[in-house]
Amino acid sequence: MTNKITKLFKIQYPIIQGGMVWVSGWRLASAVSNAGGLGLIGSGSMYPEVLREHIQKCKKATDKPFGVNVPMLYPDIEKIMDIIIEEGVKIVFTSAGNPKTWTSFLKDKGITVVHVVSSVKFALKAESAGVDAVVCEGFEAGGHNGREETTTFTLIPMVNDQVNIPVIAAGGIASGKGMLAAMVLGAHGVQIGSRFAATLESSAHQNFKNTIVNVKDGDTQLTLKELAPVRLVKNQFYNKVQELYQQNPSTEQLKELLGKGRAKKGMFEGDLENGELEIGQIAGLIHEIKPVKDVFDEILEEFSSIKALLTST
């Protein structure tokens, strides 16, 4: 399977693993890369030296390309970027910030740069900043989202119509059918998060993995838009947020309720009531925790069989 994305990253299949906080460590990233996709280490939940350790372990675990996802709101962003350069990382996905801030710096070091966007407007800005590709993430996705609430399958063709760089679809994709549908609409590849969160190699707590496979449609909601929109499983913490909204809270009140370490508490430490449980709507189609290789085989087999069926009719 060769296209613009496989050529850009020098990978076998146009499947990229989301760089999810508290989920995407070196084990997950290396397993995805070894399966033929592009694994990403999620630096958003790592201190700089922890990121260095994960990069070094990933290099030992795979001889295939892998990258690092960097949310640009990270307080130690300069140290993170220095470590990426020092460790020879060749691919960086940036998000949650202005792509002009770091794109030229990274590309001058020979690094391939991809930026995550949630609208046509931001896709055009990313292209003008010089990125090599964009991830177009619909609001079905788990974790932090754009404020536009544009769905993936609406966003992909609109962005593809406006930019000249490769487009990667993200949000609500966990199967071969979803991958094929995204590519029919103009995507050159897909970025998958929730499906890989529920794998053996994911660094998520087992309690969180079990929650993912039990999520049904309607069990997640985009909330906290005044701070940074985030899709959460409806648990005790989510209910407290909704109760506070009934009082027309200020931003400071929302920040006080959120506190610090909510995502770590829920996703990494397994506190299913008081932690943030960030997962996408597509979790309703995830029913089993599997090894990464089995997930790949399943996606690719379904992609090929459905594509063959459609072309034969």
Please tell me about this protein's structure.
The protein is α/β, with parallel strands linked by helices and 313 residues long. It folds into two domains: 4-203 and 284-306, Aldolase class I (TIM Barrel, Alpha-Beta Barrel); 216-282, no CATH class. Helices cover 42% and strands 15% of the residues. It contains 14 helices and eleven strands. It has helices spanning 4-9, 26-34, 48-61, 77-86, 103-108, 120-129, 152-160, 176-184, 194-197, 206-214, 236-245, 251-258, 262-268, 292-312, and strands at 15-17, 39-42, 66-71, 91-95, 112-117, 133-137, 143-144, 167-170, 189-192, 220-223, 230-233. The strands form two sheets. Strands 1-9-8-6-5-4-3-2 form an eight-stranded parallel beta sheet. β5 (112-117), α6 and β6 form a beta-alpha-beta unit. The radius of gyration is 18 Å and the shape is globular. The two termini are 22 Å apart.
Rg computed from alpha carbons, rounded to a whole number of angstroms: 18 Å
Q: Please give the order of strands in the largest beta sheet.
A: 1-9-8-6-5-4-3-2
Largest sheet: 8 strands, parallel
In helices, the fraction of residues equals: 40-55%
Second rung of CATH, namely the architecture of the largest domain = Alpha-Beta Barrel
CATH level 1 class label of the largest domain: Alpha Beta
Give me the strand/helix succession. Answer: HEHEHEHEHEHEEHEHEHHEEHHHH
The CATH topology of the largest domain is: TIM Barrel
Spans where pLDDT lies below 50 across 5 or more residues: none
Query: How large is the count of helical segments?
Result: 14
Q: CATH superfamily of the largest domain, called what? A: Aldolase class I
Mean pLDDT across the residues is: 96
Q: Overall 3D geometry? A: globular
Number of domains: 2
